[in-house]
Amino acid sequence: MDAAISSGPAFAMGVVTLPAGGGVRVEAGAMVMMRGDVSIETSTRGGFLKGLKRSLGGESFFVNDFHAGSGGQVGVAATLPGDMVMVGVDAARPLMVQSGSWIASDPSVEVDSKWGGSKSFFSGEGLLLLRCSGQGDLLVSSYGAIVETTLGDGEALTLDTGHVVAFEESVRYSVRKAGSWKSTLLGGEGLVTDFVGPGRVWMQTRSSSDLIDWIRRVNPQQSSSS
């Protein structure tokens, strides 16, 4: 993928340059601009069930495939302000992406959902993770800046669950309470995710769930009675 990322880490946008006959797959609603000889095709990519699995994982039911005739550009951006990085995947290094962080990828990259079991359920970050495999590049977004960490074999890293963006499938993970019930309820810390290498982990410097909680505190919803 020939992509240039600008305006990060606060308001990142990716511009993908397509050669003649080239293409890129984009999350529905993420397109900012098109330039040149570019057409768009909307589909569920893989049928109803795959579209449904993606939607349960926090992504749109539909995806958009952009195709270039003689060449062109497609600009993409996430809903929330933040950063964007390009990550390469291959058959030996599938990538697990947190709900809502996948923005675009080469058509050769398979974007599917993987059941996270109770680990994802109790994290509060959605029931599913998106598993990106195959051969190619993808654009991953965040809320806030993105920090990449490489873990050695057996090396551990603990993140607040809301700050997880993506990690390689070789990295083992588990979700637990941050501490005792007192620190969980009174200390402002909820659940954390423990990662154990080898492999790479991407974190975001802000948490969208914390943003939602802050908005609720400063602007509580008024209940209406009829």
Write the layout of secondary structure elements.
Elements lengths: L1 E5 L6 E6 L4 E5 L3 E13 L4 H9 L6 E14 L7 E6 L5 E3 L4 E4 L3 E7 L1 H7 L4 E7 L1 E6 L4 E6 L4 E5 L3 E5 L3 E6 L3 H6 L4 E6 L2 E6 L3 H11 L8
Descriptive notes:
This protein is mostly beta strands and 226 residues long. The protein has one domain: Mitochondrial biogenesis AIM24 (Double-stranded beta-helix, 4-Layer Sandwich), CATH 3.60.160.10. The protein is 15% helix and 49% strand. It has four helices and 17 strands. The chain has helices at 48-56, 117-123, 181-186, 208-218, and strands spanning 2-6, 13-18, 23-27, 31-43, 63-76, 84-89, 95-97, 102-105, 109-115, 128-134, 136-141, 146-151, 156-160, 164-168, 172-177, 191-196, 199-204. Strands 1, 2, 3, 4, 5, 6, 8 and 11 form an eight-stranded antiparallel β-sheet that branches. Strands 9-10-7-14-17-12 form a six-stranded antiparallel β-sheet. The protein has a three-stranded antiparallel β-sheet with strand order 13-16-15, with helices on one face. The N and C termini lie far apart (55 Å). Mean pLDDT is 83; it is low at 54-59 and 121-127.
